[in-house]
What does this fold into?
Amino acid sequence: MSRSGATLALLLLGGFRNLADSATAELSERGYGDVRTAHDFALTAILAGADNVSELGRRLFITKQSAAKLVAVLEERGFVSREPDPVDRRRMRLHVTERGLAMRSEGQQIFDDLRERWEEQVGADTVKTVEDALRRLLGDNAGRLDSPGWLVRDLPADS
It folds into this structure.
């Protein structure tokens, strides 16, 4: 078995993909078949204060045009609404809808269930050890959920 840095990177990415793909599939079974991983990143950024397309683009490290396309998809699917800013009516403010909040809540529960499955497979202590090691290695860079530019950069307009 290879112990190269590239293998480690692929294993970490594979773990992320496994969890994200499993959560997406489960959300689909629960009536959210139109969800993509990038959508949750965008909703997280909006809830954290990215209340307009420009700020969302900055937080996700994507162009304003890509952010506008992403918002259009989220709005079409009922996860986000746009409303005129009460101070500057030319500016549209983004809000996560009840449907968006419900989807995120279901998603969080699904991730908790997936963690429990991993704990059943390899043991809770092993999962905790891996998590603790990653926190020590990554520190404050442990993956902000509102800045996945590498993940959404090449997202097709209809995703």
Notes: The two ends are 36 Å apart (CA to CA). Helices lie at 5-29, 37-47, 53-60, 64-76, 98-122, 124-138, 149-152. Residues 70 and 157 are 7 Å apart (CA to CA).
